[in-house]
Amino acid sequence: MRTGKCLCGMCSYEIDDEPIVIAVCHCTDCQRLSGTGHTTGAMFPESSIRLFGQPATYKIESNAGNTVTRLFCGTCGSPLFGKNTGMPGFMTVAMGTLDTSDGMLPQVEIFTRNQRDWDHPNPAIESYDTQPGWKPENGI
Ligand SMILES: [Zn+2]
Ligand SMILES: [Zn+2]
Asked: What is the CATH number of the domain that holds 70?
């Protein structure tokens, strides 16, 4: 069981499954969302996540034409989750909100074309200029 929460504690969650993929995203939306160079997100089946509290939501259209919903704490502003209509049934958890994440290492970095020169990708893992044609059913 993994647990996590926002900065103020109004929103918290439990997850009882393993992540399907852990990705670092350098896209410009993720930079604005996080206020820094990238987001690090772990994707889980949505059904494995139990949410406590009522996060605020913000919807935006992705480059691929899907609707991305960001869930964040309306009180303290912590980004918590992301959902994408292109990946139904899955939810990405903002890794920094997990209480513990030992051993959960990113497998891929995406949108490295947007990478800030002060935010270096990890050369040891796979990276892509944009979004690879990755689907959960294909595995890593
Ligand atoms: Zn909060
Ligand atoms: Zn991104």
From this structure: 2.170.150.70
For the segment 95-133, what is each residue's pLDDT rounded down to a tens digit? Answer: 999 999 999 999 999 999 999 999 987 889 999 998 887
Distance CA(37)–CA(102), nearest Å, equals: 22
Specify the pTM.
0.89
- Look at the chain and report how many structural domains it folds into: 1
Centre of ligand 2 to C-alpha 25, Å, is 4
Ligand nearest to the CA of 25: 2
Residue 98 included in any domain: yes
Ligand 1 centre distance from Cα of residue 3 (Å): 15
CA 68/CA 61 separation, integer angstroms: 6
Nearest ligand to residue 76 Cα: 1
Question: What separation in Å is there between the alpha carbon of 49 and the centre of ligand 2?
Answer: 21
Q: Domain span at residue 41?
A: 2-118
Centre of ligand 1 from the C-alpha of residue 47, in Å: 22
Inter-CA distances, 1 with 76, 97, 98, Å:
25, 15, 11
